[in-house]
């Protein structure tokens, strides 16, 4: 009976490794922060620009913030 357990162990090990590999892929694509806390520098510049000049004059900062958020894993 101990021979049977030895044969099952490697397949269980492979399954566990495969599950860990899938989990790491999912965690890499999911954001690690809340969207409100991500990219504080570009968010501040974007917000200040919009307050002072209006949204239409701040496309450069808005796009910079979007690119930063995308780099953090958000789909915006």
From TrEMBL:
<dbReference type="GO" id="GO:0016531">
    <property type="term" value="F:copper chaperone activity"/>
</dbReference>
<comment type="similarity">
    <text>Belongs to the COX17 family.</text>
</comment>
<dbReference type="Pfam" id="PF05051">
    <property type="entry name" value="COX17"/>
</dbReference>
<feature type="binding site">
    <location>
        <position position="36"/>
    </location>
    <ligand>
        <name>Cu cation</name>
    </ligand>
</feature>
<keyword id="KW-0496">Mitochondrion</keyword>
<dbReference type="GO" id="GO:0005758">
    <property type="term" value="C:mitochondrial intermembrane space"/>
</dbReference>
<dbReference type="InterPro" id="IPR007745">
    <property type="entry name" value="Cyt_c_oxidase_Cu-chaperone"/>
</dbReference>
<keyword id="KW-0143">Chaperone</keyword>
<dbReference type="GO" id="GO:0005507">
    <property type="term" value="F:copper ion binding"/>
</dbReference>
<keyword id="KW-0186">Copper</keyword>
<keyword id="KW-1015">Disulfide bond</keyword>
<keyword id="KW-0479">Metal-binding</keyword>
<feature type="binding site">
    <location>
        <position position="37"/>
    </location>
    <ligand>
        <name>Cu cation</name>
    </ligand>
</feature>
<protein>
    <submittedName>
        <fullName>Cytochrome c oxidase copper chaperone, cysteine alpha-hairpin motif superfamily</fullName>
    </submittedName>
</protein>
<feature type="region of interest" description="Disordered">
    <location>
        <begin position="1"/>
        <end position="32"/>
    </location>
</feature>
<dbReference type="InterPro" id="IPR009069">
    <property type="entry name" value="Cys_alpha_HP_mot_SF"/>
</dbReference>
């Amino acid at each position: 009976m101990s021979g049977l357990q030895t044969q099952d162990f490697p397949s269980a090990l492979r399954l566990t490794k495969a599950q860990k590999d899938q989990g790491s892929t999912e965690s890499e694509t999911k954001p690690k922060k809340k969207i409100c806390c991500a990219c504080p520098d570009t968010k501040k510049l974007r917000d200040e620009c919009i307050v002072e000049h209006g949204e239409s004059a701040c496309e450069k900062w808005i796009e910079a913030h979007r690119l930063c958020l995308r780099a953090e894993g958000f789909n915006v």
